[in-house]
Write a structure and sequence with these properties.
The chain has 247 residues and is α/β, with parallel strands linked by helices. It has one domain (5-239): Rossmann fold, CATH 3.40.50.300. 41% of the residues lie in helices and 17% in strands. The protein has ten helices and eight strands. The chain has helices spanning 18-31, 52-59, 68-71, 82-88, 95-109, 132-139, 153-166, 185-198, 220-227, 230-239, and strands spanning 5-11, 36-39, 42-44, 74-76, 113-117, 143-148, 171-179, 202-207. A six-stranded parallel sheet has the order 2-5-1-6-7-8, sandwiched between helices. A two-stranded parallel ribbon has the order 3-4.
């Protein structure tokens, strides 16, 4: 079994844009000719025909088709923290089961890349003993941290980086989301300060485009936006000496 490129996409909080980045990133990887798998270990607040994996599949239809019980082993209807949503349905979230599903995806589908999207932020409880950060540590995939580009992001980003450092989790880089098309001094300084003080590279700056949040959108805006992400592209090229020529 080959070792795929694996990334755990987490965020500095809820509603920060993890799913939008994961969708665009998955689409980007597929377009480079990489067999890409996407996993959402814990999904809360899902409705019929409306969940994060469904959105990702719509944006990136080329991802590997994986049974839902592997790709998203825990799914709860209540839009709440995993520990509360699971408690309401009387189902305990078992990290060992999630790790087993991750290993099964790698062994059975032999992907070139695996993207794992978290729920909420790093200190969201999964059960009475484990937090999301513990699951990240257990899976062993490096983190891509999604943060808001605007006011308040310095505190949230540095706290997240401090925790990941304490947990000895590798951080590949940061994605700043919701970056205004006409950036102010505030947003420009956030990019500079996070990279300088945090000591972690900014892999991408995703602009605040309405089309990226449109569930009926075809994906062209994602293509356009991800073609702009030169730092992300360069980072992947460094990881893949044998990357496809299209990259």
């Amino acid at each position: 079994m080959k070792k795929p490129l694996s990334f755990f996409v987490t965020g500095t909080g809820t509603g920060i844009g993890k799913t939008f980045f994961t969708a665009g990133f998955a689409r980007f990887l597929c377009k480079q000719g990489l067999r890409t798998a996407v996993m959402k270990p814990v999904q809360t607040g899902f409705a019929k025909n409306c969940d994060d994996l469904g959105f990702i599949k719509m944006v990136a239809p080329g991802i590997i088709d994986i049974p839902l019980d592997l790709a998203s082993p825990y799914r709860f209807k209540m839009p709440a923290s995993p520990h509360l949503a699971s408690r309401r349905e009387e189902i305990k979230i078992d990290m060992k089961h999630i790790v087993s599903c991750y290993k099964s995806i790698r062994s059975e589908y032999n992907p070139d890349a695996v993207l794992i999207e978290g729920a909420g932020g790093l200190l969201v409880p999964l059960n009475k003993n484990d937090m999301m950060a513990d699951l990240i540590k257990k899976l062993g995939a490096p983190v891509i941290l999604v943060a808001d580009a605007g006011l308040g992001t310095l505190n949230h980003t540095f706290l997240s980086l401090e925790l990941l450092k304490k947990k000895k989790v590798s951080v590949s880089g940061i994605i700043l989301n919701k970056y205004p098309v006409k950036a102010r001094l505030l947003e420009r300084d956030n990019v500079e300060t996070i990279e300088k003080v945090g000591g972690v590279p900014i892999l991408g700056v995703i602009r605040n485009l309405p089309e990226l949040c449109d569930y009926s959108f075809s994906g062209v805006a994602f293509d356009r936006e991800f073609r702009r992400q030169k730092a992300l592209k360069n980072y992947l090229e460094q990881l893949m000496p044998q990357h496809p020529k299209s990259m």
